[in-house]
Amino acid sequence: MHPRVRVTVGISGTGGGFKKFCVGETDINDASRTIKDKEIVKAGENGVEYIELPVAFDGISVVANPGNDFVDYLTADELKKIWEPGSTVEQWSDIRAGWPNLRVALYGPGTDSGTFDYFTEAINGESQACRADFTASEDDNVLVQGVAGDAGSLGFFGFAYYIENSTKVKAIPVDGGSGPVPPSANSINDGTYAPLSRPVFIYVSKTAAARPEVDAFIRFYLENAPQLVTEVGYVPLPAEAYELVLKRFEEGVTGSAFHNKETIGVSIEDLLQAES
From CA 52, how far away is CA 35, in angstroms rounded? Predict the structure, then answer.
């Protein structure tokens, strides 16, 4: 329908994408977290108005080597004990009595990743606050290979990559205070996979959205989202939420409905309706 349009796709973490988006270099930024204060300031300095559009749910999956037969679940407090700055956890026995004296090999996204930002904020209470001695990569496939190849491994990455590699790694249920819950489409959608379920977004430049080809792309994206989201391993939003998101785009509503908002236990529909 738009044969002369050339689409350029760059790959980085969410933070790297925002660096380009907030200075006007890109039209759309995919984001696995909301925009940060410093990014809002940078966008304002460069005259970049943005439309924030939630497009799917994701659950950060905590995973171990498939040969691990002793970890039945981990609590949020135990995850904090493992990942917090200054952590003294070196072996599995340091986490819970009765577990073996097996070295814990940690794998996680790089610090430029929105997944890293969200996990550290949800578990450690502050974005980017984390022990430094773990194997980091922006490529989730590298993390999968690391966890799959190390008997004492523990890592985290998005639910889609867990589903794609569920025969290579073992998902660990997380107890956020209401009992252990494994990551699944249902537990991520209804918020019971707490505190590691989250919406993911696209941010669209308002200036770019005025171009017909960008407008057509975003409409296609949102109108077909339930099918496309499922195909790539994420969890669709409720139908009513997509209607509200499309309305938000059509009305050109700029700014963030999710930035610095408490989202655990609050539906996306409620947040969008409250803002409008």
Answer: 9
